[in-house]
Specification:
The protein contains 4 helices and 5 strands, in the order ααβββαββα. By secondary structure, it is of the alpha+beta class. The radius of gyration is 20 Å and the shape is globular.
Length: 160
């Protein structure tokens, strides 16, 4: 029985985290689309990002921006991946507005199943919008007395 840590490389040189990541990628729908194993309606691709039409669009032109390197969500993506996704998102969003003649769009990123994330691979939704499309965003609420300042302090204490 080995006494090595699961974070240390095994005999093949791979750490448990690396092996787990490869296993996740092998079962990830978006990793399969990136690899070309599953067809998609790609509208953009560079060395770090792909963009393809959502097969269940909120509105026509609904596009997903997906980094080629697997991360489960926003919280565990590298800074470089987030930068590349942001630049590609702007480029594709501008193309959607221009080509489809839409005046606006929403960007959405659902992080975690509770937030509505269905595919555990970071992706940004670009949802073209029209003034009469009938889509409504979430309702706003108000804070209780003193609650907003307490929440502000909790967040700031983590950020330093």
């Amino acid at each position: 029985m080995s006494s090595s840590s699961p974070l240390e490389p095994n005999e093949s040189g791979a750490t448990f985290q690396e092996l787990f990541q490869k296993s996740q990628q092998a079962n990830c729908l978006f990793c399969k689309i990136v690899a070309g194993d599953i067809p998609s309606f790609r509208v953009y691709e560079d060395d770090a990002v792909i963009a393809f039409l959502d097969i269940k669009p909120v509105n026509p032109g609904h596009t997903l921006i997906v980094p080629k390197i697997h991360s489960e969500g926003f919280h565990d993506a590298s800074e470089e991946a987030l930068q590349r996704v942001a630049v590609a998102t702007q480029k594709v969003a501008n193309a959607i507005m221009s080509s489809l003649g839409v005046p606006a769009f929403n960007l959405m990123q659902n992080n975690g199943t509770v937030a509505g994330q269905v595919i555990p691979h970071l992706h940004i939704h670009i949802i073209p919008r029209h003034s009469d499309d009938g889509i409504q965003l979430w309702p706003g609420t108000t804070y209780a007395e003193g609650e907003i300042a307490a929440i502000q302090e909790k967040i700031k204490s983590i950020l330093g």
